[in-house]
């Protein structure tokens, strides 16, 4: 049995207000917000870099100091390690500045130049480390020439690992940004296509309605022409209010169909006999707006128009597990299937197929068939989405 859509929406909104549990905030939430842990770590790349840079070199200082004390190197080892930490910190800041430019180049050039830069930085690091070692730990040592490169292997490994981590993180962020951008563009393209498909309906429907109004004016039936214009205005107001790519409840869709049928009833009078059989549990199911109007229009065109006595049109909807089954049927001669899908109509069933594919992918069913009344049926099955969803 059908339920009034406004009543249903008010009842659903009241249910949400009375049943939704209050949001529970963690006691640690203010602390997390204060230190920036309430958002993705790499949301601010600059902040993330300085945190990783400081934590990484602090860890280097701690572990190297611990290693020196474990090997009885004395307190001067702490000064030596502090100098090396400051050197590594400063060199990697210079590397980061260069890498920000190199990362925009071709991959081969990025790799070759990055290795060259790391090699030069490793040589400078080794010279400073050797000088520090000879100054603070072994004052008797007098390194000369190539001896200053004695620590280059360890320093190259350290800086190469830093460079690999830098590029790894930045390439990951670039890839993630490209994926988000592609998803956004795909979403925009899908929305645009859905809008285009739905906007095709308005000129198609307007042509027939305005033609009927023109006929009524020529026949001097001004009251009927004014009534039809008023109903047309209400119908078009609905199409402007609702997003073309959005979804509405089945109750709203049925109310819109009734507006449309009131306009058509003025054309066909008793020859058009619509019937609605909407189960109560489907009234809040969501579907693309104006999805069913072309089906009713096809039924009118191929069942009601050619028959002298008109025809009946049934719209039925019922719940089947996690799906909603919607059928638009008529009791015409059943030969409208091929005509309804023909290119001459411009929209029709092909439009519905495209909109369903855009909205649900493979998670829907669409078929046409002759029914037991001898007429034509279109059967749609879509996933059940509650009217409580935004």
Helix percentage: 55-70%
The number of helical segments is 12
Instruction: Describe the strand arrangement of the main beta sheet, using strand numbers.
Output: 2-4-5-7-6
Mean pLDDT: 81
Largest sheet features? 5 strands, mixed
Residue share in β-strands: 5-15%
What order do the SSEs take from the amino end to the carboxyl end, as H and E? HHHHHHHHEHEEHEEHHEE
- Total strand segments: 7
Give the C-alpha Rg: 36 Å
End-to-end Cα distance, whole Å, is: 25 Å
* Global outline: rod-shaped
Structural class: alpha+beta
Q: Which spans of ≥5 residues are poorly predicted at pLDDT below 50?
A: 1-23, 337-346
Give a concise summary.
By secondary structure, the protein is an alpha+beta fold. It is built from twelve helices and seven strands. The protein starts with a helix and ends in a 7-residue tail after the last strand.
What would you note in describing this structure?
By secondary structure, this protein is of the alpha+beta class. Helices cover 61% and strands 12% of the residues. It is built from 12 helices and 7 strands. It has helices at 5-19, 29-34, 45-70, 76-102, 107-137, 152-199, 201-218, 222-241, 250-268, 293-304, 336-340, 349-360, and strands at residues 247-249, 272-278, 286-288, 311-320, 323-330, 365-370, 376-383. The strands form 2 sheets. It has a 5-stranded mixed β-sheet with strand order 2-4-5-7-6. Strands 1-3 form a two-stranded antiparallel sheet. Helix 3 (45-70) runs antiparallel to helix 4 (76-102) and helix 4 packs parallel to helix 6. The longest helix has 48 residues, at 152-199. It is rod-shaped, with a radius of gyration of 36 Å.
């Amino acid at each position: 049995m059908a339920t009034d859509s406004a009543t249903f929406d008010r009842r659903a909104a009241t249910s949400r207000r009375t049943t939704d549990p209050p949001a529970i905030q963690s006691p640690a939430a203010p602390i997390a917000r204060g230190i920036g842990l309430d958002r993705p770590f790499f949301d601010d790349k600059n902040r993330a870099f300085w945190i990783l840079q400081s934590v990484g070199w602090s860890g280097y200082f701690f572990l190297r100091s611990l290693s020196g004390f474990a090997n009885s190197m004395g307190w001067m080892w702490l000064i030596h390690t502090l100098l090396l930490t400051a050197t590594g910190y400063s060199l990697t800041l210079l590397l980061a500045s260069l890498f920000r430019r190199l990362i925009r180049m071709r991959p081969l050039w990025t790799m070759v130049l990055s290795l060259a830069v790391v090699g030069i930085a490793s040589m400078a690091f080794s010279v400073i480390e050797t000088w520090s070692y000879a100054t603070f730990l072994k004052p008797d040592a007098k390194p000369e020439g190539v001896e200053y490169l004695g620590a280059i292997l360890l320093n190259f490994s350290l800086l190469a690992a830093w460079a690999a981590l830098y590029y790894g993180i930045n390439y990951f962020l670039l890839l993630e940004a490209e994926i988000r951008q592609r998803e956004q563009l795909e979403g925009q393209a899908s929305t645009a296509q859905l809008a285009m498909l739905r906007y095709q309906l308005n000129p198609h429907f307007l042509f027939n309605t305005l033609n009927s109004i023109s006929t009524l004016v020529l026949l001097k039936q001004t009251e009927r022409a004014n009534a039809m214009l008023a109903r047309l205005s209400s119908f078009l107001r609905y199409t402007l209010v609702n997003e073309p790519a959005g979804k509405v409840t089945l109750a709203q869709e049925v109310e819109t169909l009734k507006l449309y049928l009131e306009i058509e009833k003025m054309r066909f009078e008793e020859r058009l006999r619509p019937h609605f059989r909407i189960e109560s549990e489907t009234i809040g199911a969501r579907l693309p707006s104006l999805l069913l109007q072309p089906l009713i229009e096809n039924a009118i065109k191929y069942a009601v128009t050619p028959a002298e006595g008109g025809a009946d049109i049934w719209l039925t909807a019922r719940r089947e597990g996690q799906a909603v089954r919607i059928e638009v049927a008529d009791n015409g001669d059943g030969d409208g299937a091929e005509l309804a899908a023909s290119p001459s109509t411009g929209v029709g069933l092909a439009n519905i197929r495209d909109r369903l594919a855009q909205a649900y992918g493979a998670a829907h069913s669409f078929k046409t068939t002759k029914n037991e009344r001898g007429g034509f049926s279109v059967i749609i099955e879509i996933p059940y989405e509650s009217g409580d969803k935004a």
